[in-house]
Amino acid sequence: MADQMIFKRCEIKYMLDVTQAELLKKLMNQYMVADEHGVSTICSLYFDTPDHLLIRRSMEHPVYKEKLRLRSYGTADKDTTVFVELKKKYESVVYKRRIAMSEAETERYLSGHEKVKDTQITREIDYCLKNYKDLAPAVLLSYEREAFYAKDDHELRVTFDRNILWRDYDLSLCKGIYGEAVLDKNKVLMVVKC
Question: Among 3, 70, 120, 161, which is most exposed with the fewest C-beta within 10 angstroms?
Fold first, then answer.
């Protein structure tokens, strides 16, 4: 699962309070197993145009939308493996493509100063970079995630995200985990993925 670079799935999100989340996790015990990484901190650096075209389109709930982001698990340093991800949604189905490289390599690649291996995924990311003029880091989200998958189907996943923080300054995966809270501390974002 850790090496998966192409995803196609439906995702449904639910807002729960902490008590509901804990009760649900207890009920899930007979059907689901905790992800091997346990609770992990995820950092996602989202790119957008200067006029915020990608987020504006996303908020309009179109039939098709896409976003470009960098993802790390925990705070990165220049040598940490991070993921460049192109996430597309068409008719409620999510398609995610990602490539792995060091954080330093992503800076050079996304700024147009370095080419990477030519693959279908890199061509899709290159097209996105060319299609949306002046894409640049716009917002960083971080959160603690607890993930589970079904005992009889690894493709069915349920995640619980807490302590979701955002910031639109210090836009680097290397700057640490801090920012403004998105949710009340008593809230949990649950996502069912299949």
Answer: 3
